[in-house]
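Table S2 (text version). Query chain:
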Amino acid sequence: MGRTRKHPASSGNDGRDDLHGNAPDRSSVALLLVDVVNDLRFPKNEKLVRECGKLGKRIAALKRRCKKAGIPTIYVNDNRGKWRSDFSEVLRHCLLPRAPGRAMVKQLVPGTSDYVVLKPKHSAFYATPLDVLLKYIGVDTVIVAGITTNACVMITASDVYVRDFRLFVPSDCVAALTDEEQRNALRLMEANFAADTTPSEKLDLEGLRKRHS
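Corresponding structure-token output:
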């Protein structure tokens, strides 16, 4: 099976560019940030809370490099509480001083050029417009970062793979609740989803975008 997806919309000539809104980017590569706007208030969160500041720093550095290379960032995030499709409220809650994940979230506040999608379940694709958004941008390669490696990240990676996107999951930009879960999930994604888990600082982002344009 071929690994490159070709989308009619990537040419910009089919008259459907606006999505009843706007998807101005044209890129063969996208950075997908899964559940990084997160208060981390869940059971067995101690290790993740302890290390979330460093994780946020690494993901933020990857995002800056992606922006420099012309690679758009798409936040795909859990809603919280009653479904209001209100990402600003999710962000406000996760930036509260008492939020365990604040050290990560404050480094990853979306910018005006970023995309935001709210999801109801583990996968970034389930019951969301992500598939349509990637199509209109012209993406054939997806870089996935975020939490947790063995749950939402891995399930999203599976859906990336079955859609024939090329998949990168930088091992330093994802995190699980335990080291064992982290190792096992990365190995599974490498073996079953053809994931490249090269650490973020070793990714040639500009070369990757040119190679798959």
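Notes on Table S2: The chain has one domain: 20-211. Helices lie at 46-68, 87-94, 102-105, 130-137, 149-162, 179-192, 205-211.
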